[in-house]
Specification:
By secondary structure, the protein is α/β, with parallel strands linked by helices. The chain contains nine helices and eight strands. It has an eight-stranded mixed β-sheet with strand order 1-2-4-3-5-6-7-8, sandwiched between helices.
């Protein structure tokens, strides 16, 4: 069906990969090949990274990103990468984590959680929650202010962020000051108007959504009463007592309506919530970095994180940057598979 995409996105849409997760092993190989050779994000200020592992079982690999010239403690964001629960990695989400560390002036803890279908729910969520509790316990060593600890991610990472926030509330876990839910994957029932309508959109569409939930929950489980709200946060009956939220949705994204509904329910439950809906965009359209709408989305996210994580002061001037810089001679960088 025809879609009224933002005009600035149109020239690049033919270059956007037509992602299918029907053959998950091949898709993973293709994803790696597509990411290799893409121009890398260059932060406006130096960012230091280090890899470490939380001892298990199972072990959970992490990558820590921190501004190199920081002074004192900083806020912390535990970050969960996109990928429909089956794709993605710390490596492939490095640009986002680096940008947040540099432009927000925060310590970012990026989590290499286990992927479905080899490791179905709750494996990935358990890894994400373990990373949060470890980060809180080691905040002093990481240079993180424990009163400014947040979770966040995009797509499946946004869904995992919502689930981790629910777990932290229900288990009396580390207090969170914020949850960043970018185009979140929240509802296995797949019964919203956007999910029914968008069957052929770029990157993410209903056929991929069906497979994603089948891989994550196990065949025959999605849409049944057996699904936990920690797997699909849209199923949670009570959203009160959760941390303030920032939620984004895209007009031509099958996940659109579950994000809009979750934002509305958070507001009704008394949770301070900021919602940004972007007309003319689709799931993963942020890979077209030269488009003005993409730059605005990046700037909006940075602003929201700065305001949430630095509530009484602004980060140093060196990190007061707008959208990610790029050379006019460099073609738009595409990042496939952001789900």
């Amino acid at each position: 069906m025809p879609y009224a995409y933002d005009p600035a996105l149109l020239p690049w849409i033919p270059q956007v990969p037509r992602l299918s997760i029907a053959d998950i092993e091949q898709t993973r190989r293709d994803e790696k090949d597509m990411f290799d050779g893409l121009p890398k994000y260059v932060p406006p200020a130096p960012v230091e990274t280090r890899d470490l592992t939380i001892p298990g079982p199972p072990d959970v690999p992490l990558r820590i990103y921190a501004p190199a010239n920081r002074a004192g403690t900083l806020p912390g964001l535990v970050y969960f990468h996109p990928g429909g629960f089956v794709l993605g990695s710390v490596d492939m989400s490095s640009d986002d984590a680096t940008a947040i560390a540099a432009e927000v002036n925060a310590v970012v803890v990026s989590v290499e959680y286990r992927l479905a279908p080899e490791h179905p729910f709750p494996a990935g969520l358990d890894d994400c929650y373990a990373a949060l509790t470890w980060t809180a316990a080691n905040a002093a060593d990481l240079g993180i202010d424990p009163d400014r600890l947040a979770v966040g991610g995009e797509s499946a990472g946004g869904g995992l962020s919502a689930a981790v926030a629910l777990l932290a509330r229900d288990r009396g876990g580390p207090p969170l000051c914020f949850q960043l839910l970018g185009v979140p994957e929240l509802d296995d029932r797949l019964d919203t108007p956007s999910m029914r309508a968008f069957t052929d959109t770029p990157i993410w569409h209903r056929p991929n959504a069906e497979l994603s939930w089948d891989y994550y929950l196990g065949k025959g489980v999605r849409g049944t009463d057996a699904v936990s709200p920690y797997a699909a946060p849209a199923r949670a009956d009570d959203l009160s007592g959760l941390p303030p939220a920032y939620i984004t949705t895209c007009e031509f994204d099958p996940l659109r309506d579950e994000g809009l509904t979750y934002a509305q329910r958070l507001i009704q439950a008394g949770v301070p919530t900021e919602l940004h809906h972007y007309p003319g965009t689709f799931h993963g359209s942020t890979m077209i970095t030269e488009a003005p709408i993409t730059k605005r989305m990046a700037a909006d996210r940075t602003t929201a994180l700065r305001q949430a994580l630095h509530p009484t002061h602004q980060p140093p001037t060196s990190t007061q940057q707008g959208p990610r810089p790029s050379s006019p001679a460099t073609p738009a960088r595409t990042q496939p598979g952001k789900t």
